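Changelog-linked ticket: adenosine monophosphate example.
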Amino acid sequence: MKLFNTAERKIETLKTIEDGKVRIYTCGPTVYSAPHIGNFASYIYWDLLVRALKAEGYKVTRVLNLTDVGHLASDADDGEDKMEKGAKKEGKTVWEIADFYISKYMNDFHALNLVEPTKICRATDYIKEDMAAVDAMTKNGFTYETSDGIYFDTSKYNNYAKFANLDLENIKAGARVEFNDEKRNASDFAVWKFIKPGENHAMRWDYLGRPGYPGWHLECSTIIDTELGEPIDIHTGGIDHIPVHHTNEIAQTYAISGKKLANYWLHCNFINIDGQKISKSLGNIYTIEDLVERGFSPMDFKLWILQGHYQSDRNFTFESLDAAKNRRLNWRNRIALCLQNPGRDCGFTRESLQNVLSAVSNNLNSAEAFAIIDNSKLTYEDWVAIDELFGLNLINDSPDISDVQKALLKERKQAREAKDWQKSDDIRHELELQGITIKDGPTGQIWQYLN
Ligand code: AMP
Ligand code: ZN
């Protein structure tokens, strides 16, 4: 498996810490509003990663976190807590908001047939571990206290700028001076925030003699330490995580234990909608539910995502989603052909399937794999393997027709032989109402799915 490692800025061949085993951590959603299709783009790319590793024979252990505390409106410890803001807006408690959007996220997660992680961790279940981590960072001389929290002194970690190739001088010049002039360096970040008397912050834990809550970045360092142990093999996230969130995770873990956090870092680019950034103010936020309401299957969207590469910016349009839907229908009808005549859609099979796997092993090049699928003759068994690799529910959504439908086909064949065209058309119509259409070709009748 070859992957683009952000930390080394090049494509590398994966060498796991333990032979045949791979440990992965994925930064999950902040559960304060409905996840949109942009959010799910990243989870679909990492689903392919997991499936491709499994296809190569690796045993995959994967942890995903759910951020239900501490993520402020700006990544730089600035502004309101996203959870508190969501709760206020909907007139609910932060805990209700978290539960509600976690269940929404998991519904979509399952609708997209994403492989269940080994463990899903809520940030609020790791508060004790967060406190111990802050203690360790403080003991090791990496933190300082201000009136509003415990901050990480980024000047104490020599490699702070390395991961994201940060220009710290520039960050300093661009820093908003009016905000928190107690910070020693513009890039310093809160590992623990204090709640001021009178401040309305429902999620609170007593630490250092007063109420507070963990900084956003801390949960990933503590969950990885608790559940997987450093270094892990692969850490994944969106490109927005590189300069702040992942940079800070790396710094924290070093300050806590002196260890490297991960050997390989994978980041996906963003999708835009109709050429514009996904944003509430533009009203172009779509959820998986919205796509279903417009007549698409979540699998059409998954296929659309996998038609592109995780390292390229994508432009989502409903026209292109339509094309993805048609491609999936075409694949399902090739499966239908296999069901009707096992010898029909085959030839060069092993070689084609091997090429599909090789394309995916080459830095998850699913677009190339799909072109190979389009141009190869595949057996039913190949389709089963392809479905396992991409998780597109091709087999599930392409059942054989029922015995009653088979009997109708036989009846239609006899009607045609007797030149009873009216009966032949009536049966075609009846089957079309059941989602099956019939094509008459040189080899006789062939049925296909209509949608
Ligand atoms: P959040 O729930 O805000 O923490 O977002 C989860 C992750 O979804 C983000 O960190 C990004 O990596 C990813 N994400 C957000 N918007 C997009 C987008 N338009 N395209 C791709 N990924 C996105
Ligand atoms: Zn994270």
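Closing comment: Example verified and attached. The pocket of zinc ion (ligand 2) is lined by residues 27, 220, 245, 249 (CB under 6 Å). The chain has three domains: 2-268, 273-390, 403-449.
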